Amino acid sequence: MGNPFVHIELQTHDPDRTKKFYSGLFNWKLEDMPDKGYTMIEVGEGTGGGMMKNPLPNAPDHWLPYIMVDDIRASTKKAASLGAAVRQDVTEIPDFGWFSVITDPLGAVFGLWQPKTGK
After folding, report:
1. Could you tell me which of 49, 72, 75, 89 has the fewest CB atoms within 10 Å of its CB?
2. The domain spanning residue 42 has which CATH number?
3. Which domain holds residue 101?
4. What is the pTM of this model?
5. Along the chain (119 residues), what's the average pLDDT of each consecutive run of 10 residues?
């Protein structure tokens, strides 16, 4: 099956409180990346993710799933042609890959992810 969910990101206004809650609730390994302002979530089996400070001050805390694609630019363009709104155009995360954020025609938000070769 192609295009699996590969990363789930929590955007929160209070990362410290959020980390305390989820590490208390689940047996997740949280690894802070201070230079990036990001915390990786290792869940063991299944899809892991990360958490970060919510960049939108008026948006509620929310989970954002990412779906893997082979060609981020083509997939982002195709989503737009099918009526989606591109919220964050293709953006590189150096050494890791590229992402974009899409809102589908009915309002659901998700990300697309293309890893760099070998990742």
Report:
1. 89
2. 3.10.180.10
3. 69-119
4. 0.90
5. 91 96 94 92 94 92 96 98 97 94 96 85
